[in-house]
Structures are given as structure tokens and as C-alpha cells.
What does this fold into?
Amino acid sequence: MSKTGDLFIERQESGESHSHFDLEQERKWKNYYRNVDIPNDWLNVSYGNDMHPSFEFNGYHIWFNSPILAIRHEKHFEFGYTDLNNFIDWQFMVTLSEEYGWDTSDPILMTSDFDEVMKLVNYAKGGKS
It folds into this structure.
């Protein structure tokens, strides 16, 4: 099974227990990246308490937002905003892995173009562009 494989099966094989919420969250999150060609060497580090599914690679934490604009708007309101004046649209956000969980972590990249993400994380790996 690839590292981007089904979280349910991976957890089931490891003997971890599941709540109904966890399973529903995993199913929903798979829709965030099902049409994206994620490399096999990216590690799925999605965590149920996070607002978005995510992967790690080469010292980067790559977050996936919904491909559906209405859901991205809804998540904006979940952060406490009352309108879309400060809305920044993105499908992919990259932060440093070492800053995971820090409230002060600033995104390195916010984009809707997955090729930009690939260029960033692969450039740091070996000078590829």
C-alpha cells in the first residue's frame, strides 16, 4: 500500500480503534486530494483535529483545501470571519514541517496550482525546477 493509501485500511491493519467521526472525516478528506497526483514518497500525516488533510515531504507540510469553492468559503467562516472581505483562496498551502502546531507559523505558499507546490518542494530537494 502506498503512503497515500487509504487511512482506514492503514489504521485497521495497525489495530487502531476508530470513532464514527474519524471514518467520516477520512472519507471526506480523500475527496480533497483524489484528483491530485500525489507522489508515493509523500507521507500522509492527516490528523483528525486539523481543519485540512496534509502530507509531509522534504521538510514541508503540504495542506489540501477542498476543491469546491463553496466549502472553502464555509471553512473561512469557521475561522470566525463574518464576511468574505479577508478571504484568501487556496487549494494548497505549504508550511515548514518543523513549525506544525505553532500558532505563528506563516505559509510559505498558498496557491490553487499544484505544479507550484511540486516546484517548491522538489526544488529544495535537489535543485529541480
